[in-house]
Request: fold
Amino acid sequence: MVADWLTYPQPERLKMAQEHLQRFGLQEDITAMDFVHQSAAYYQEIFGQLRIQAQYRKFPIQLHWDNRLFETVLDLVLITPDRVLLYQNSGFPGDSKRWRKHAVESLGAWSYLSKTALQRLFPRKKVETWVHFVVGGAVLLLQTE
Reply:
């Protein structure tokens, strides 16, 4: 879903979905068309709720922190009139009861540093980090201080 984009031509989206499912051995579990529909529903949900002014995929950031350089690539950054929303994908397959714990333990420090970098880029906007659990089809707000 991360590589999918609603403006891509349908044949390209289907081909990409087929290759993705085949690469991960999922072609017997879900059809390419279902995968494309799920992707479309995901993006329509996000974009339908927000007034997006700008969007960035695979957004590289750097932050000098405590005499170290933090570098990463953010999956999806959305700019709204008052917020910056960071969507990071997770392939964690665990059940939903463990999502929050997994997000805090595996992405807590990363989220804090990423959020700090985005706050420096967009000082007048509130920054939120959302973890997209791709396997479970859910999105979780990750709050760090």
Notes: The chain has a mean pLDDT of 85. The CA atoms of residues 21 and 29 lie 9 Å apart.
